[in-house]
Specification:
The strands form 2 sheets. A 3-stranded antiparallel sheet has the order 3-4-5, with helices on one face. Strands 1-2 form a two-stranded antiparallel ribbon. It is globular and about 55 Å long. It has 176 residues and is of the alpha+beta class. Helix content is 24%, strand content 12%. The chain has 2 domains: 99 residues, no CATH class; 76 residues, no CATH class. The two termini are 23 Å apart.
Length: 176
């Protein structure tokens, strides 16, 4: 069940935060209500909160749109199906942000020969310093690049997304 954000959760030392703090499922205290994407309240920021020179708090939070939300949505849809079809009373599928990865491609030009984009992946979304003590993430699956290849990846993803959104034949084979 998602944890409610409390002042004490945000006031604790960031060094005490763990990947295991993040919920596995997105069922709320109301058994027929699930919260994913921007409706899901994280238990704490991803890293040490900081302040700007004028005192504004800056607390990095995980991405809760795009790929992570689609993965959460698939898990929640499976749990809801299990409630309806099998009589389950608790969420049956999980997708902890501490166990899933994310990919993002930000386009910076549309020319097929000189377009560019920044492409990045991270795994896991929430740093796990127990599993990856040096960095909190698997550096084989956490990458970042900028260039024409990123532009083509963005174009392919855009085309695949629209194909899937229109539920064309075999749409379900396209991953989130």
């Amino acid at each position: 069940m998602p944890r409610r954000r409390s002042s004490s959760a945000w006031d604790t030392d960031h060094k005490d935060w763990k990947a295991s703090d993040w919920p596995e499922t997105y069922q709320t205290q109301y058994k027929n209500v699930f919260a994913i994407g921007i409706a899901f309240a994280p238990p704490h920021a991803l890293s040490q909160p900081r302040k700007t020179t004028n005192g504004t708090a800056v607390a990095p939070s995980p991405p809760r749109t795009g790929m992570p939300s689609a993965i959460m949505g698939r898990a929640v849809a499976g749990s809801i199906a299990d409630v309806i079809l099998n009589g389950a009373t608790e969420a049956t599928r999980g997708a902890s942000m501490a166990k899933i990865g994310a990919a993002c491609v930000a386009s910076a030009g549309a020319n097929i020969l000189s377009g560019t984009a920044a492409a990045m992946t991270m795994f896991p979304v929430v740093p796990d310093f127990e599993t990856y003590p040096e960095t909190g993430r698997d550096l084989v699956h956490t990458t970042g690049e900028i260039g024409l290849a990123g532009h083509w990846v963005k174009r392919i993803l855009h085309t695949a997304f629209l194909y899937k959104a229109k539920a064309k034949p075999l749409w379900w084979l396209i991953p989130e």
